[in-house]
Design a protein that fits this description.
Layout: E1 2-5, H1 12-21, E2 26-29, H2 32-36, E3 40-43, H3 49-58, H4 62-71, E4 76-79, H5 81-85, E5 89-90, E6 103-107, E7 119-124, E8 126-127, E9 142-147, E10 149-153, E11 159-164, E12 168-175, E13 178-181, H6 189-200
Parallel strand pairs: 1-2, 1-3, 3-4, 4-13, 5-6
Antiparallel strand pairs: 6-10, 7-9, 8-11, 11-12, 12-13
């Protein structure tokens, strides 16, 4: 089972529906007891960095998540803003992130001035290394992006996927029990379905 963290940011229904399509029991919850007892967690999110961190703080979820992820080392997947909140900080705001991974969030600055920000639409990814969440990821897989900021990992060993949009950026990472996707797998049809299936079937 996967518990999708409900902290007031993002459309949780589409993620829940996609997980159910791949045969995974999924629920949404903001209850600390439910979250602490989850086999796996998914941290979604859209919108601004500071607003996301404020929502986690107001709901008292930061210490719960730190215990789950850092102390107990149970698997967690961040999507879009959820991925960014796992880092130390963001150019978008002034509030510190969760700090689970040695990374920062930077503004997208394409080298090609004709490319628009936010980066919105389908784009291919390049696989940097093997990982259980990337099992059966085919060459040329395309995912749906909507973002104006991207994660910059300081440790190259944490990078799983990169994407080019007027310059290469890190579009997926893994650090131990922590994964993040900048794109929206729940909106990426068969490609995203495969990655969520891999997370649902993960044994850790």
């Amino acid at each position: 089972m996967v518990v999708i963290i409900d902290y007031g940011v993002g459309n949780l229904g589409s993620i829940q529906n996609m997980l159910r399509k791949v045969g995974c029991q999924a629920i949404t919850s903001s209850d600390p007891d439910v979250i602490m007892n989850a086999p796996k967690l998914l941290l979604p999110g859209v919108g601004a960095f500071d607003a996301g961190m404020q929502c986690l703080t107001e709901r008292g979820l930061k210490p719960v998540l730190n215990d789950y992820v850092i102390s107990r080392k149970k698997p967690v997947l961040g999507i879009c803003l959820g991925m960014q909140l796992m880092t130390a900080s963001s150019d978008e705001g002034s509030i510190p992130g969760l700090g689970w991974i040695d990374a920062q969030v930077k503004r997208i600055r394409p080298s090609d001035s004709t490319l628009k920000v936010p980066h919105m639409g389908w784009n291919q990814v390049r696989q940097v290394k093997d990982d259980p969440l990337l099992t059966n990821l085919v060459t040329g897989s395309r995912f749906y992006f909507v973002h104006s900021y991207h994660v910059e990992c300081h440790n190259p060993e944490d990078v799983l996927l990169t994407t080019n949009y007027g310059g290469e950026f890190h579009s997926a990472f893994r650090h131990g029990n922590i994964w993040g996707f900048q794109f929206h797998p729940e909106k990426s049809h068969k490609f995203g379905m495969q990655l969520l299936k891999n997370f649902a079937e993960l044994n850790q």
